[in-house]
Amino acid sequence: QVQLVESGGGLVQPGGSLRLSCVASGSIFSLNGMGWYRQAPGNERELVAIIASGGTTVYGDSVKGRFTMSRDNAKNTVYLQMNSLKPEDTAVYYCSARQVYWGKGTLVTVSS
Fold first, then answer.
1. Residues 77, 88: Cα–Cα separation, whole Å
2. pLDDT tens digits, 21-70
3. Cβ contacts of residue 94 below 8 Å, gap of 6+?
């Protein structure tokens, strides 16, 4: 079993920044396969960023150049640095391990 706990969401103005964190515990042997997803009201869950099996990071088209996913292997933690936020980035952001285990999500609201 793997437990995932996200934090760092909140209300931010357009153009602002937030950093999300996801701490993994349990039977987590590698941070490869960890990813961030988001779901806005009325929309399907979509990929934001994922650490692929080879260790490279893949980003969704809508966040390329604005969001950066990073990792701290020693802390079993992945981060999502979100810059130049737009109202359309408003969503619940979920951390996932290999799309098998999911956190409860953290709400990000971008509004003036």
1. 26
2. 999 998 777 777 899 999 999 999 999 999 987 889 999 999 999 999 99
3. 6, 36, 37, 38, 39, 45, 102, 103, 104, 105
